[in-house]
C-alpha cells in the first residue's frame, strides 16, 4: 500500500505507522511481562526493561530518523511553494525545521538513555522532544494557514491547529504533574504516593505523543 502512494506520501505514512507500532508493541510486551501496570504507564515505562527496552530503543530511533526525513521534505515543499506564492518568510521555514530537528534529537536521547539507567539525561531528552514537537506542529499549523487557499484547504488547517492546541494544552500539565512526582519508578499501583500525579501526567504524555502522530498523518495529502 505504501509503495502505491504517489509522490513521497509514503514517508509520513511510514512514520505514522512505524511510530504507532513502536508505542503499541512496547506497551503490549511490557504489560504481558508484568513490568508495568496496564492502566496508562508513561511511554518510557514501556521501554525500560528487557526485552521491550531493545525493541523500544530500536523503533524509536527509526521513528526519529523518519521524522527528520519527513520534516526536511516538508521544508523543501514549503520552499518550492513559496517561490511563486511568497506566503511565508524563508527564515520562518528554516526556524521551524531547526525546532523539529531538535525534537528528533530529543527522541534519540529518550530511545538511547533508559528512564531508570540515566534518569536525568532521559528526562532532558523527553522535555526537548515534547517541547520542540509542540512548537514545531504549532508553527506548521500557522504556515498552513498562510498557504491557504492555494496550497491547503481550510479544513486541513483547522484540523492541524486543533491538534496543535490540544497538544499544547496537554503538554503543560504533563510537565507540571511530572514535576510533583518525588520518585523514579515504573511499576506504579493506585495506592502509592504520587500515583495521581503520575497517572494524570501519563495521560497528557500519551495525548501529546499521539497528537504528533495524527498531525503527521495530515501531511500525506501534501506529500502526494
Automatic annotation (TrEMBL):
Keywords: Membrane, Transmembrane, Transmembrane helix. Residues 8-224 form the CWH43-like N-terminal domain. GO terms for cellular component: endomembrane system; lysosome. It holds the Pfam family Frag1. It is found in: Endomembrane system. Belongs to the DRAM/TMEM150 family. This is DRAM1 protein. It comes from Rynchops niger (Black skimmer). The gene is Dram1.
Amino acid at each position: 500500500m505504501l509503495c502505491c502512494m504517489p509522490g513521497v506520501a509514503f514517508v509520513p505514512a511510514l512514520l505514522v505507522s512505524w511510530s504507532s507500532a513502536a508505542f503499541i508493541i512496547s506497551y503490549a510486551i511490557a504489560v504481558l511481562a508484568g513490568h508495568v501496570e496496564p492502566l496508562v504507564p508513561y511511554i518510557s515505562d514501556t521501554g525500560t526493561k528487557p526485552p521491550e527496552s531493545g525493541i523500544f530503543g530500536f523503533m524509536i530511533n527509526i521513528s526519529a530518523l523518519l521524522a527528520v526525513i519527513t520534516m526536511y521534505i516538508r521544508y523543501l515543499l514549503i520552499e518550492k511553494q513559496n517561490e511563486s506564492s511568497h506566503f511565508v518568510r524563508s527564515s520562518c521555514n528554516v526556524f521551524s525545521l531547526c525546532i523539529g530537528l531538535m525534537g528528533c534529537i530529543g527522541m534519540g536521547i529518550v530511545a538511547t538513555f533508559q528512564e531508570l539507567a540515566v534518569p536525568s539525561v532521559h528526562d532532558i531528552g523527553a522535555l526537548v522532544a515534547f517541547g520542540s514537537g509542540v512548537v514545531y506542529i504549532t508553527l506548521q499549523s500557522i504556515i498552513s494557514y498562510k498557504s491557504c487557499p492555494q496550497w491547503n484547504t481550510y479544513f486541513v488547517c483547522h484540523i492541524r491547529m486543533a491538534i496543535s492546541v490540544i497538544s499544547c494544552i496537554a503538554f503543560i500539565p504533563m510537565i507540571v504533574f511530572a514535576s510533583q512526582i518525588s520518585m523514579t519508578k515504573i511499576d506504579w499501583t493506585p495506592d502509592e504516593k504520587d500515583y495521581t500525579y503520575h497517572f494524570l501526567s501519563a495521560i497528557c504524555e500519551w495525548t501529546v505523543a499521539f497528537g504528533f502522530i495524527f498531525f503527521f498523518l495530515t501531511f500525506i495529502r501534501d506529500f502526494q
